[in-house]
Amino acid sequence: MEVVIMLLITAILSGALVYVDTLLVGLVPMVLFSEKYMDTLLGIKAMGSIFDIFFAFGIALIILKFLKKGFDIYILWSDGDADTEPSVLFIGFLRALAVAISFPTMYGWLAEIIQEMSEKIVTLISGSMETDFSAVITGISSAGLFTGIISLIFFICFFVLYIQFLTRGLEILILRIGLPLACVGLMDRDGGVFKSYIQKFYQSTLAVLVQIILAKLGVALMLNAHV
């Protein structure tokens, strides 16, 4: 019975090792630019239009909030300090517009940096990695049933992590779509929702880099028989 189970585990690991080893490099652009893969899956180019709709809506809200705050402060005297220079409100308005308009370009730079860093680090880790998959499988199978089960659990956890990567990609996509709306808060003294929004955005993008590197280290240990 143990032999049959080990043969089954070995067959599963033989395909999983090769797939996992080549999976991580292509995962970064998939997470950072989920809209491209969504368009491919949907068969239509809809994500660009969705970006445009929310961008136009965000710009409209920024303009409306600027007009409303100016009216409430300097005409109705019902909000803020009427003695505050109008230039303060106007600078906040320009700042919100500038961030909303320039964000796609700045995100492109950020994504390129994260992608380049992850590729270099993954390549560096892979440089001294054992790539003889048949020898790895032989080592795992000869180590006994317990090692085989632990190895199988590792790859199950890895594929769960892969699903989490895809979820992270959708999260970043939603944050990118909604950022023009969050820029409305830049006209408030405390930054409004924009401050916490941009912190969540940076946490999500940097988490991709950290998780990719740690996942590759896990695969490297597995391929060097450190289960």
Molecular structure report:
There is one protein chain. This protein has 227 residues and is mainly α. The chain has one domain (2-223). Helices cover 83% and strands 0% of the residues. It contains seven helices and no strands. The two termini are 23 Å apart.
Fraction of residues in β-strands = under 5%
Structural class: mainly alpha
Radius of gyration: 25 Å
Number of domains: 1
The description of the largest β-sheet is: none
What is the end-to-end distance? 23 Å
Helix content: over 70%
- Mean of residue pLDDT? 78
Looking at the structure, what is the overall shape? elongated
Beta-strand segment tally: 0
What's the helix-strand series? Answer: HHHHHHH
Number of helices: 7
Poorly predicted regions are none
Q: Can you describe this structure in just a few lines?
A:
The chain is built from seven helices and no strands.
List keywords for this structure.
single chain; 7 helices; about 230 residues; mainly alpha
Task: Compile the SSE list and pairings.
Blueprint: H1 2-32, H2 34-42, H3 47-74, H4 86-127, H5 133-142, H6 145-182, H7 194-223
Helix pairs in contact: 1-4, 1-5, 1-6, 1-7, 3-4, 3-6, 4-6, 4-7, 6-7
